[in-house]
Amino acid sequence: MPVYKNASRRIGFQSLTTSGAANLTVTPVTQVSQDGSPFANTLNTPTHIGNGCWQFVLTATEMNGDLVALTATGAGLLTAEREFYPESDYTQARALKLDNADAAVSSRLAGASYAAAPSVSAIAAVILASPLNLIATDATGRVTAGNLPSTMTVAGYATGQDPGAYLTSQGYTPTRALKLDNADAAVSSRLAGSAYSPAPPTSAIAAAILASPSNLIATDATGAVSVSMTQPIPLSNTAQTIGDALNAARAQGFGQWLLDPNAKTLKLFGPDGVTIVRTFTLDSVTIPTART
User: Fold this and answer.
1) CA atoms within 13 A on the CB side of 221
2) Which of 27, 33, 148, 174 could hold 69 in an S-S bridge, CB 3.0 to 4.6 Å?
3) Domain residue ranges in the chain
4) What mean pLDDT value characterizes the chain?
5) What is the torsional sign of CA 32, 34, 39, 40?
6) How many Å apart are CA 11 and CA 57, to the nearest integer?
């Protein structure tokens, strides 16, 4: 399996006595060298696994070299040697990113093909440039009477073989290795090029809005907006809105009401005389001074 540069690694080695027997008792002194530097004692001490096989962990710093050489010596022991050629470009983290290449990159939308949607201010500027949308005001800048619309919506390799040379021979160059950092998300999670539709220009949006009769604002000769005074008011609406205020005014001024002396409540009904639009709790039935 690949040996990664600057990543800690558990190392195993066979230790023999000068007579060729398995070393079972003498703890070897392990030293490490990176890229030809002087040998230095390792941070961790090896422990005996069994049958003369010992193990310990080389730290990330001790593995930070293109050639890492290891020796294990001791009194009455043969010197054990091992060497490693850590891989620095194709790291384990980059290998995991290959799972993100679950679709061809060419199937995704190219940056040059993307057109940003127009801003709200740009759309508003085109729409408001039409005389059909001018709103008449008086000298104080207030909208004149009748200007309110009736409706509105807001919206593996051989032993001793250099893994780096092997990977390069297979086309895995250091330059390509760096590109794996770009695979930081699954390709399939991006928008497919065939599924993208460019946003329409602001002029097309404005034209479509102004061409629909349902969106035209009817005005009189002075530019005042005509209001339909026959528009019905629903019995239920969102609290603290204009509709809520109109509904309350209708119930208070024209609706049926019912005083319940037992519950100390005052109920206001809609025009159907059945739907309760508001129930108040009174502080007194006989002489109420407050309602909640």
Assistant:
1) 0
2) 33
3) 9-84, 89-103+115-231, 232-292
4) 82
5) negative
6) 6
